[in-house]
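To: structure subgroup
Subject: Chain for Friday's discussion

All,

I'm putting the inputs and outputs inline so they're searchable in the archive.
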Amino acid sequence: MVLRLISFVLCPFAQRVVITLKEKGVDFSLEHIDLAAPPDWFAQLSPLGKVPLLEVDETLLFESSVIIDYLDQVHAPKMQPEDPLERAQHKAWIEYGSGLLLDQASVLHAKDETDYQKKLEAFQQSLSRLSDPVAERLFGQTERFLLIDVAYAPLFMRIALMAEWRPEWRELVPPLLQPWQRRLLDRPSVAQSVVGDFALRYREFFLAKGSWVMGQIKA
């Protein structure tokens, strides 16, 4: 089985796939493209015009939740609950996490302080919804590393990065979620899932998009 992952260097959804592959010790090749000027062949491959794409031999998969679910079915160790209902709950919260990633990016795309504060407040409220399932031990309080951990690691990484630059992001994660965040960020597969100059690229990307908050950060 030959695996080729097509990604954008800052894509959190592709990062999910990288983490999963590293956790399972599976060999793969990684190709980054520029989504602002994608190569001609990419339009032929991607039905949605998005990354990640995973080529499995000559078969193509898209959508990160589908890809990591497939990888979990064919490569050990298993990273989902055995109970079907609990597994379905995890999948639902993974989709919720996808929405949070989009919300977090939307905060950074805000063009002025008023819009930024409004979006940040809404994002914090949405993030706080995770406290109940974590308190109920549905996820986030086990040493076993699961797909739901994979799904949320890119989000917590981006929050931690923003917290290095902006004090309001340091209070964003509810106390109940903070141990989970620390465990995920300490995971080698998570730390190794981005390029070495990720922080610089991240700031420059949003600056180029007219981000108000990135413009307030001293280089």
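Points worth raising on Friday:
Residues 3-74 form a domain with the Glutaredoxin fold (CATH 3.40.30.10).
The two ends are 44 Å apart (CA to CA).

D.
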